[in-house]
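User: Quick sanity check before I run a bigger batch. Here is a single chain. Can you write out its predicted 3D structure?
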Amino acid sequence: MRTQTYANHRTTPPVYLVAGVAILTWVGFNLYHAVLNPSCGAWLTAVGTTALLPVWFAARRNSQKMQDRIIRLEMQVRLARLLPGRDLAALTLGQLVALRFASDREMPALVERTLQGEFASADAIKRAVTDWQADWLRV
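Assistant: Done. Predicted structure follows.
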């Protein structure tokens, strides 16, 4: 298995992209057909296929939202173990998602730096991780 790093940790599943291209092509064809040969059926087909676009988008987005909720819980448990008694309620979901790539060894220092406002974004936190812990299951 290849090594995951900041540079390659973001990915979009190819099947999602292929499905998007197929749906957009289908929508385009049906809209083109409805304009050239207007009929109630042609327009209903065009509208129906266009309605698939938000479904296509929501399929991935809802999976990501669920995974973010799981990550938040995972990180709450992990940080309670690593930093017992520390109030970490100020950490945002984006910060927790970014921190999860850090090893247990470097986590306390990164949390402190995050709470002190040293990082301008979650991306900056990920860039600061030196011992990257891969997440191959991210949607």
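The chain has six helices and no strands.

User: Great, the batch can go ahead then.
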